Amino acid sequence: MQTRLNFPAIFLTLILVVLVIFSGCSKKSADTQTSGSNERPTISKAEQAFDMLQVQNTYSKHAYYHAYPQLYCQELEDIWVKEDGPNAETASWTNAQGIQIGMELIKKNYCTENMKNVQKSLDAISKIYPEIENIPENLGAGTGYTIHTQTTPIIEVAGDGKTAKGLWYSPGIATNTMIKNGKAETGGNWFFEKYAIDFVKEDGEWKIWHVGMYYDPTPPTWGSQMEMIAAAQPVEAGEKAPSAGGLEMTKPNPNPYETWSPKSVLKLEPSFPEPYYTFSETFSY
């Protein structure tokens, strides 16, 4: 008895076998990175692209939160590393006032002390304008705001998918309030700076870990960054704005804000984020 071969079925089976082998090879290529004779698990290009978008979204939330001083505490809860998490002690924020290390100190300055000043702002303004009731719903009244727009992002996600680095140019404006002779006077300025941020993934979500703010010198007629009222508390004329001092810092900023002059030498800093596999192999902002 002669057996007839089912050539279409055999051909289809061969195609399926080839596809399975090719798929396995492709997955291995996408998920591993060869370093010498060793292979290290590496996220795919698609995962990197998705993570870059999530990193951008995280920083964009900071730009929104930072415009509303009454929401600073909420910002820390939402997009920064956890206060009791594995990255809390190494979290840092470098700004014009200095360098603060650890979420405990960052929370004290950015949340606790800030909210005291936001309340003082409302206390002062409600006395001048009785129609502004001194109630929690009106927190933010009398408080200046700072807007950091974000442009020209450069984002690198680590090959292991656990950390990321980002650099943004951030032109911005700020407003402030001063109480003079029982009246509220307003002012403002604008400035140009760069945000350099390290992100770390906690429980599957991208969080802010290290922040470095690098200021471009601003002409004196545009207003001085050091004279801004970041905490936005109305002060009597002649008093020192709370943002210019009084906050606890771990150490001074080695590159503080400076007013521009014809003698200023501008530098392209900080360094651009570059491709890296794991955080121990790169620098920290």
Sequence stretches where pLDDT stays below 50 over 5 or more residues: 17-37, 224-245
- Helix proportion of residues, in percent? 25-40%
CATH topology: Nuclear Transport Factor 2, Chain: A
* Beta-strand share of residues: 25-35%
Q: Helix- and strand-based class?
A: alpha+beta
Integer average pLDDT: 83
For the biggest sheet, the summary is: 8 strands, mixed
Describe, in plain words, how this protein is organized in 3D:
The model is unreliable at about 15-35 and about 225-245 (pLDDT under 50). With about 280 residues, this protein is α+β, with helices and mostly antiparallel strands. It has 4 helices and 11 strands, in the order H-E-E-H-H-E-E-H-E-E-E-E-E-E-E. The termini are far apart. Strands 3, 4, 6, 7, 8, 9, 10 and 11 form an 8-stranded mixed sheet that branches. The protein has a single domain (about 40-280), classed as Nuclear Transport Factor 2, Chain: A, CATH 3.10.450. Strand 1 (about 30-35) and strand 2 form a beta hairpin.
